[in-house]
Amino acid sequence: MSTRRFVAFLLGVWLGGSLFMYVIATHNLASADQVLASPPPAAAKIIDSLGADAARLLLRHQASELNRIYFEYWGVAQLVIGGAVFGLLLFATREGKWPVVTALIMILVVALMRFILTPDLVTFGRQLDFVANPVGTAEYTRFWGVHRAYGIAEMVKSGLGLMLLGLLLFRVQRKRRSVHQLHTVDDPDDRHIDR
User: Fold this and answer.
1) How far apart are CA 86 and CA 160, in angstroms?
2) How far apart are CA 89 and CA 98, in angstroms?
3) pLDDT tens column, 136-177
């Protein structure tokens, strides 16, 4: 496997992991409501003893805690994957400066997400976990402001990753065409071999 293909594979893992995290986070929060809607018999007894509202707060807190842990670990994993992509582009390929700069910007965006936005999401989210009606509170406003910033950063990172992936794949195709044309021009008698 060529280095360029391996970098493209890592980018695919990175982008796929981001999509997977979005699906998991959404599913975790929805699962709390699903359990309340049709709880297993043993859980129904516990929910009845707690009350539906308290049980909902507790289940959503658990789902949120799982999401917080996943996003913290995913932030570290992204830095590792991003570092590998950057290092390979810089030292093991001849891709030029734009792919290297793009990978570096992606790492900087991930660092912002991991070290600034994620800790704020964790802090503000925990402040809201056991508030029955948080809408309109200062904590709610701060949480959703940081959440929007995280979403924008994720879109920027993913957009850059898709552009970089496209650039790598486009160059592979262009290089193949160039090599094919070179063989055709250099050795016209071997055209039947390329078919």
Assistant:
1) 13
2) 10
3) 899 999 999 999 999 999 999 999 999 999 999 887 555 555
pLDDT digits (tens, 9 = 90+) for 89-108: 999 998 889 999 999 999 99
Number of domain units in the chain: 1
- CB contact burial 53-71 (16+ within 10 A = b; e otherwise): eebbbbbbbebbeebbeeb
- Furthest C-alpha separation in the chain: 86
Q: How far apart are CA 30 and CA 24, in angstroms?
A: 10
**Contacts of range 163-166, beta carbons closer than 8 Å, 24 or more positions apart:** 163/102, 164/11, 164/99, 164/102, 164/103, 164/106, 165/8, 165/11, 165/12, 165/15
CA distance 116 to 105: 16
Q: b/e per residue, 26-49, with b = 16+ CB within 10 A?
A: eebeeebeebbeebeeeeeeebee
The answer to whether residues 102 and 86 touch, using CB atoms and an 8 Å cutoff, is no
Amino acid identity for residue 190 in this structure: D
What is the C-alpha to C-alpha distance for residues 124 and 94, in angstroms, rounded to an integer? Answer: 44
Of 53, 71, 77, 62, nearest in space to 28 by CA: 62
Q: Beta-carbon neighbour count of residue 89 at 10 Å?
A: 25
Ordered alpha helix ranges (H), the chain: 3-37, 41-50, 52-91, 97-112, 118-128, 138-186, 191-194
Residue-number span of the structural domain to which 52 is assigned: 3-194
